[in-house]
Amino acid sequence: MTDQIIDESEIEKLLQPETDLERSIISVSEFRKGLLWGLPRYGHPEGQIVKHIYEVYENIERLNIDVETRRKLRLIALIHDTFKYAEDRNTPRDWSKHHGILARRFAENFIKDKNLLKIIELHDEAYFTWRLFALYQMPEKGEERLQNLLTEVSDDLQLYYLFFKCDTQTGDKTQAPLIWFEKIVSEISNV
Q: Is it true that domain 8-184 has CATH number 1.10.3210?
C-alpha cells in the first residue's frame, strides 16, 4: 500500500468508519484534506496520513483489549496526525501550532472526554521526552518533561501508552522511544 496514492473517494473504503462519530469526523472537508496530505519520509514511508492511520488501526486490532478501549484508540488514531498539513514549521517553531494542538482543537467539536483530548494533543510527547534523554543528553529537562506528561495523562496513562505503542510500531520508526517508555514507566501494562 505504500506505493499507492489514496484519493478522496477511497478514504471510507480504507478506514472503514465504525461509528456515527467516526463518519462525522471523516466527512469534514478540512479533515479530509489532512487525511490525503503527506509524502513518504523517514518514520512515515507510507506518505499519506490516511495510510498511517490504517497502519495504527492494524496495530490496535492486534491488542488484547476491551471494546471501549478499542473505540477510544480508534478515535485517537483517526485524529492524531491529521492536522500535520496545517502545522507551523517555521524557525523558531510556534509550538502553539503543533499538529497535536491543532488536532485537539478540531476534536473538541466532536469529543467531550478530556482524557481523549489530552492524549490527542500530547500523543508525541513521550517521543519528545525520549529525545531529551537519548539524543540531547539533557536528563534534567527530560525528567521534568516526563513528569509533566505523566501528570497530564495520569487519569488514562494505560490508554496513552497503548496509543504510543500502536503509533510507534508503524512505518520505519525507531522503536527505542517505546522500549525506553516501557522500561521507565512502571505503571503501564504491555498487552
A: yes
